[in-house]
Fold these 4 entries.
Entry 1:
Amino acid sequence: MFHEEQNKPLIKFSDLKGADEFEKIKKYLKGSGNIDFSLLDPEWGYIKKMKILRNRFVHHYGTIDKEDRDRYRTILEIVNSEKSITFMENSLRDKKIDDFDSLTLVIADKEFNVNLLKQAESLFQKILTLFRL
């Protein structure tokens, strides 16, 4: 990584353990760049929420089954806060989890991608600014 080559930090990204890449990134930035993550919100939280959606699309074809009760509640909160994400079964959006067997997530318009790119750009700008301090 460029930062490792230029600054020779005490902690290297490859030294970090854990299954979640975002937690590894957080540990690395805190350890090598002394980054205060409270300064990276709301972008950091938004990107982490979008990773949940990404994983649902990639690994489950955007489908949420009745058995996924905990994940459903998290995804429902995201869908309710994002105008560009909906369920294919849109009329079921306000139903309870017991009212369906499965739902399918849909990206409703390009604004989702535009907003995601803006949030990511803002996050990276903040990180670069904090590294320069």
Entry 2:
Amino acid sequence: MAWPKEMTLAKQHRRAERERDLAEKQIAMGKIGVIYAHDPLTDWSDDGIAKDAVLFLRTTPAQTLKALQVMAQRGFAYKSCFASPTDEDVPSGVDWLRGRHVLFLIGTRGKVPAPAMGTQFRSPISGPNAIHEVIERYFPNMPRLVA
């Protein structure tokens, strides 16, 4: 019987292979597998988006419901989110709060490999390039669209 660490490493290896295989298929078909949308109201064409894709959707707390609706309308199932601190005040809900963070919602459609145990980021994730670091670590090979 393998030790938990050995099992975790084996799962990380299998997940990396799955991500590479998916990326190769998407590249061969000229499809996009990772979308990073700066705003829930950003419009992007579904032409060229792979059936197996992941969406990272930046939103403010006040826009979270709209962002989840946009995600569902585009065929993505909500999986998780993380907060990222910001230097500017952002609306957190009409009159209730003024926050200093944004949210990044993560959704998938089709079969996209989730991060393997031991590779997940912990929220909050800070820094101006936080989202790009997450995408690069989770999906280093998949073709991307920044919308």
Entry 3:
Amino acid sequence: MWNMAEMIDSDLEKGIGAIKTEVIKQADLISEKWSANKQESPVVIMLSGFQGSGKTTVVDVLAEENNLVVISTDEIRFNLINKGVKFSEDFVRLVNATKYELLRRCLERRYSIIVDQAITPNRVKIVKEILDKYSNYKLTTIFLTASKEILRQRVSQRPEIPGKYRGTVDELEVSIYKYFENYGDPVSGGYDLIIDTEKNSPQEVVTIIKNILKK
């Protein structure tokens, strides 16, 4: 039995209570740029990792080489911030509701998808519940890892890229602390695949993922 706090957290994660017209508007803004094709055996990749793990680079290469749609909460947040929307609980609801609206649109069109966001057990559960309504989709969860020292170094040396959130070392430290506090070590967290981006180049990471998806 869930307690009330857990129910509230779940509602927030699902985006329940977000203004529907605004969700549709934000989803339209992003989905109109999609150029993917319908797939016979579509996949959903939930790709996670702390800031500096190489997610953005891997996502960009995977999407371009494999005709995948990227659903990124960073992109949704960036669009809302550019509109002047202030961070709040309603902001979080809108981001989450837009993410799942985009996911459903992809599933209806049978696109293959990368969900670029930190993975938690609750998020995986929600995606699985949505996927149950669609046939022949394969879900793969992946965590990109590196030592804390390398993550700090990469984040501190990141260049500014238009449309991309740069992040800070302080935010990295907080996200690592909160993840370990709430979920433990991600390396033993039940992901389908753990890839060390210190030992593998971005292209090698992409190759590893592509080989897994072929199985």
Entry 4:
Amino acid sequence: MELQLHDWPNLARQRPCREYRPDHPGMVEDNLKSMAELARGNGVRPILASVLPAAVYPWRREIQPIDKILALNQWIKEYAEKEGFVYLDYYWAIVNGQHGLKADFTSDGVHPNAAGYAIMAPLVADAIARSKPQPSKKSPLTPMLSGLYLWLFWLWRPTRSTSRGFMIDVHNA
């Protein structure tokens, strides 16, 4: 599976959680739970990703993010496992020995650069592949019945195209 992200920074950008304050513990977790439950309720299989490593925020040096990031990532991982969601772990792929981004993957210590996104892209592709529904092993007739359904739908459709030879592969869709 090849994943092409033409505008990766805009697709993957996460808005900072400005309302998160130390006096409101659990707010981020509650927001993530709400988003995941809304997604699942609307037929979307959420992929929960770890927070990227950051040893310091250059614009707010008084903030010590390491312990908070590690704790939040642990919570996200456990929540994803408990709820059956895919967990995407960026953290350990791009962290340095001081719990920040590896120097090759960032220009400011917080945000990934092109090399960082190049490391993250295959992780995203793998998470997407893991989030797809797996074929049911309950009955050997399932693939045959799916193919029969598509064939019957093709015969039934109200307007027939003059083109022939299209095929829908249910198992790779």
